[in-house]
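Hi D.,

Good news: the full-assembly prediction came through. Inputs first.
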Amino acid sequence: MNERELRALGAWIDFPEERDLAPAVRARLRSARPRRRRALVLVLAAALLAIAVAFAVPPARSGILRFFHLQGATIELVDKLPEVKPSTPLDLGNPLTLAEARRTMRFRPLTSSLLGAPDRISWDGHQLWYVYGHNRLLVAQLLASGVPVYIKKAFEPGTRITPVVVNGQTGFFLSGARHFLYMAPTRIVLDERIRLARNTLLWEHGPLTLRLEGDLSLAEALRIARSFR
Amino acid sequence: MGRPLDDRELVARAKRGDADAYEELVHAYQGIALRTAYLIAGNAADAEEAAQDGFLKAHRALWRFRPGAPFKPWLLRIVANEARNRRRSAGRQAALALQAAGEAASGDAAPSPEAALLGEERREELVAALNRLSEADRETIALRYFLDLSEAETAAALGVRPGTVKSRLSRALERLRAELGEGV
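Then the structure:
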């Protein structure tokens, strides 16, 4: 048996007759559109809110004083955060299992040997979320390498930002006063005061940028972050 | 008449919401998507569903498609995953089947000289030996030779690294020769 025979055999395999899939694909894309339109309206509404908020804050008082970069994320120190009303709980996307995440993500989802299996996993189209306990701990994984800034985090001078190293890569620990999370492409403001009002560790791991949020000290956050492999 | 758009341009336009551009990509790759899905799912209806769902999922995932990367292996990976999921949930083993006797190879009016060289008895012998192989071995050989996919494309469809395909293929061919009683 040689490779030529195998190539020739391909011509004799009983493949299904080729059908034009384009009409069905187009119809299904069209039928999915209303939902996307609604989503777009929400995004636009949130974006408008963000813009309104931005305008509500006098530019001189919201100047960027300093910033830190991670892949896919920028952390900005501003002298004044916008006043926004507490948002509804953040939608973490569609639930899925770890096996599904491993099968479908374009990156290898990291898991923590310290925390074990998450109680809930979901995918919001950009980030893979792990929820431990009743939202006690949140971990988001974003394939950030080579993508434009996706997450923007703004914080006030009262917030403490500590540069850290996690498994040899850069990270920052935000603690203390308020900080906000922006989804950069849409300028959506996610008010974290109500949802978490807790400390956050952002760090890089290979092509990923991870975010850990919870009532954690720096030492605890680092211990958990280092266990993600 | 302008030159036909290449994949890169079509993907860029599809990302901006151009449905016609995406339809062109569907037309360009529906054949290979369907055959890939069929080799993995082992059933024509499942293969068609997997190919269709694969195109839909690829469309939804276009935002994370790396600009300049080849579209075909990326799409085949998605379609192959869909096909694999269907085969698993049906609890079915995929098996190869030959066209009914008397049908021309690949529906052509006349088989290609290479295809014609392979006699009926030899075809049956080869397919029977392939069907005795493990699913992984059979898939690797079928994707690489029947569909003439490159090693990178085969790797994408199998969900493995390109380097793995070479070694996997070599072992699969050894086992096929053993099944055929042809010493290695």
